[in-house]
Amino acid sequence: MTITIPEFGVWYSHLKLTHIALVIASGGLFTLRGALVLAGHGWAMARHWRLLSYGIDTLLLIAGVTLWVQLSLNPMSSTWLGAKLLLLVLYVVLGSLALKRARTPMARLGSYIAALMVYALMGSVAHSHHPLGFLQPWLMHVD
Ligand code: HEM
After folding, report:
1. DSSP alpha helix (H) spans, the chain
2. Neighbours of 70 (CB within 10 A)
3. Is the pTM of this model over 0.85?
4. From CA 98, how far away is CA 113, in angstroms rounded?
5. How far apart are CA 4 and CA 78, in angstroms?
6. Alpha carbon distance 89, 31 (integer Å)
7. Residues in contact with ligand 1 (CB, 6 Å cut-off)
8. Quick one: residue 129, left, alpha or beta (phi over 0 = left, psi -120 to 50 = alpha)?
9. What would the pLDDT profile of 65-105 be if each residue is shown by its tens digit?
């Protein structure tokens, strides 16, 4: 029996597609759970939903780190990757405030909206390979 090992390009593109699918699943689940919590449906924080969310996020991070290792990137010189990792920390903090730690409904709503914006920014940073992502036209305005 011969085992065929897919060439690097094919393997890499499958891994990247998996990463993107997990980005959509993770973002979609956070959007849904956040909206339910804000609407007063506490069951969105039940153990099985939390476990599903941790599972998807773990796979997402593993796929991201594997892409990173495969490309041998250095986040100090590939500034888009450095920016993405910093935004990831901010997203985790905002997400935790939105789902449980913020004290008032207003603070929860603000954290939820900010977390979604940071997530979209992370996606645009990855897609454009630029640390400013979709903010680039505003922050790098040239007359
Ligand atoms: C530890 C966390 C993560 C690491 C190390 C990481 C790393 C990477 C790397 C190295 C790529 C490949 C870029 C290329 O092939 O040119 C990539 C693609 C991508 N990442 Fe991540 N990622 C992480 C988490 C995330 C998160 C949380 C998001 C959510 C928005 C995200 C969104 C994307 C998208 C949308 C792409 C595809 C970009 C494109 O080519 O259009 N990543 N990521």
Report:
1. 8-38, 47-71, 79-96, 105-128, 136-139
2. 13
3. yes
4. 9
5. 33
6. 18
7. 16, 19-20, 23, 60-61, 64-65, 67-68, 71, 73, 84, 88, 119, 122-123, 126-127
8. left
9. 999 999 999 999 999 999 999 999 999 999 999 999 999 99
Tokens encoding 2: 């011969």
Residues 6+ apart with CB under 8 A from 26: 53, 56, 57, 60
**Which residue's entry shows tokens 């969310």?**
53
Cα–Cα dist 125/116, whole Å:
14
Residue whose pair of structure tokens reads 């990463």 in the numeric block: 19
pLDDT classification of 2: cutoffs 50, 70, 90? confident
Instruction: Please state, rounded to an integer, the average pLDDT across all residues of the chain.
Output: 95
- Contact yes or no for 140/132 (Cβ under 8 A): yes
Rounded to whole angstroms, how far apart are CA atoms 92 and 14? 26
Which tokens hold the place of 93?
A: 């903090």
Ligand 1 centroid to Cα of residue 37, in Å, is 28
